[in-house]
Amino acid sequence: KAGVTQTPRYLIKTRGQQVTLSCSPISGHRSVSWYQQTPGQGLQFLFEYFSETQRNKGNFPGRFSGRQFSNSRSEMNVSTLELGDSALYLCASDPSGTSGKETQYFGPGTRLLVL
Amino acid sequence: QKEVEQDPGPLSVPEGAIVSLNCTYSNSAFQYFMWYRQYSRKGPELLMYTYSSGNKEDGRFTAQVDKSSKYISLFIRDSQPSDSATYLCAMTTTGGNQFYFGTGTSLTVIP
Fold first, then answer.
1. For residue A41, what pLDDT is reported?
2. Is A96 part of the contact surface with chain B (CB cutoff 8 Å)?
3. What is the mean pLDDT of residues B50-78?
4. In A, which residues are within 8 Å of B46 by CB distance?
């Protein structure tokens, strides 16, 4: 079974631009979560989508948004990029169907650099 | 105070050593405790998870949870160079509304 895939793998943007990242979960997984990973803060939870609805949300500003499509694929959008948004953005899918995250599987991430 | 505290290391051990990795936490509502391994330039890989207190063993890996002390551990027996990676602890409540990672411990196993 194919794993979680994320595109693009690397991205360079400038301040003020916006960016859209894509995630395809493992087949049959309906929950998709997004995380930001930086050296200083580690992994921080952004939000989770299940059946096209945002189910949980972390403590990030409204510039960070997401959506999920009927095929469970998810996109994350960051508007008005800031230098501090440079990070590895990870997507994870979960087969459990519950909102617990004990069995989630991560993709390889999208490395975003904001100049 | 951070929800989850993890010593970043780095930790360097000889091949065959027993490795102990630890995290402490402050939120008594956490019920699920996970350990992930992350190789350089890769996403985290789930190693094992434990519900509530107790021990869980999987091959060379043993996870322990002590909820009374708010302390979790991962033990790696007979460590191998391929175990060299960053190890992340993570925990969540039953409803999954709060999900937190430690900052990770960098481990190097020297042949």
1. 85
2. no
3. 94
4. 103-106
pLDDT band at residue A94, thresholds of 50, 70 and 90?
confident
Instruction: Please classify residue B5 by burial: count the beta carbons closer than 10 Å to its beta carbon, then call 0-12 exposed, 13-18 middle and 19+ buried.
Output: middle
Regarding beta strands B99-101 and B45-51, do their DSSP bridges make them parallel or antiparallel, or are they unpaired? unpaired
Residue B78, chain A, CB below 8 Å: the answer is: no
Distance from CA of A88 to the nearest CA of B (A): 9
Tokens 């409540």 found at: B93
Q: Which residue do the tokens 């959008």 mark?
A: A77
First to last CA, chain B: 38
Query: Rounded to a whole number, what is the distance in Å from the CA of A100 to chain B's nearest CA?
Result: 4
CA–CA separation, B46 and A53 (whole Å): 25
- The CA distance from A54 to B80, in Å, is 41
Beta-carbon count within 10 A of A41 CB = 13
Read off the pLDDT of each residue in A62-80 and give the average, rounded to a whole number.
96
Look at the block and give the residue holding tokens 């299940």. Answer: A50
Task: Round to whole Å and give the CA distance between B22 and B102.
Answer: 10
Contact A90/A39 with Cβ under 8 angstroms? no
Q: Flag if B101 and A44 touch (Cβ within 8 Å).
A: yes
